[in-house]
């Protein structure tokens, strides 16, 4: 019996893979190691995963239908899938929209087509995003809210993934749960995320760009809490006959000012930030805040890590990885 993890060289994917192996499960990991951000970081994450019989890695793009079908033919004992592969980044969707449609829509369909033919599949957990809440301004964001006003193409592709999952659940009784991640951060994170880019700029003495206005805030969710949530949800597949297309928020249930993030980075790095203010782009919503009552009721999960505790842990890793004194 094995679990398939897509995007296993990604930030969340590598942590989830490591946690699954630690609890004694065999993992089949796939990743295309695309060049959207530092491939050496992705390879370093992979290197932390053991190369023994409990982990098998294949470099594969999800849109490769034949390659994916061949892999799943060889791994017919897969009982669960954690689908985390995606084209990430909100603002980059203005630069290369085709990459988002290819990875987040076509890749999602390709995986679902293959998954529905797995004879022993009990549950497919896939990554959605808090971005699907789009232009909603009623906080905290709840799963019951309408999500039909995306603020970016990235958000639109993630919402498309939820709708496609609903259709496959309805047509093929495919048990699935979509997790709407809220600003995941921590060691081994993504360099394109604001907290990582801010840390690098503060360490280098270069400017960081902040958006004008005092209302900019995010629900920052520490990676260990995210992994705990993913595994708990994976262990709670929808019951037979449940409505298809279950989605759950996975956030810290706190909306923290971005100014606090900068202050914590300054304290942990022991250096002040040089800042420049610009208007907030149309792709970025002003604030996010997750209601997590639904996931808590289902699994007992609650977030445990405050931003004040998580940022110093990230900075300790950042110093070691980048050799920052």
Can you walk me through this structure?
- This protein has 325 residues and is α/β, with parallel strands linked by helices.
- The chain has 2 domains: 2-182 and 222-250, Rossmann fold; 194-218 and 253-322, UDP-galactose 4-epimerase, domain 1.
- It has 10 helices and 13 strands.
- The strands form 4 sheets. Strands 3-2-1-4-5-6-11 form a 7-stranded parallel beta sheet, sandwiched between helices. Strands 7-10 form a two-stranded parallel sheet. It has a two-stranded parallel sheet with strand order 8-13.
- Strand 5, helix 5 and strand 6 form a beta-alpha-beta unit.
- Helix 8 packs across helix 10.
Please outline what is shown here.
With 325 residues, the protein is an alpha/beta fold. The chain is built from 10 helices and 13 strands.
CATH homologous superfamily grouping of the largest domain: NAD(P)-binding Rossmann-like Domain
User: Which value, in Å, is the CA radius of gyration?
Assistant: 19 Å
Residues in β-strands, percent: 15-25%
Catalogue the unreliable spans.
none
For the termini, the CA-CA separation is 45 Å
Biggest sheet descriptor: 7 strands, parallel
Please state the structural category.
alpha/beta
Oligomer: single chain
Total discrete domains? 2
> What average pLDDT do the residues reach?
94
Q: Please estimate the helix content.
A: 25-40%
CATH class of the largest domain: Alpha Beta
Number of helical elements:
10
Number of DSSP strands?
13
Q: In sequence order, what are the helices and strands, one letter per element?
A: EHEHEHEHEHEEHEEEHEEHEHH
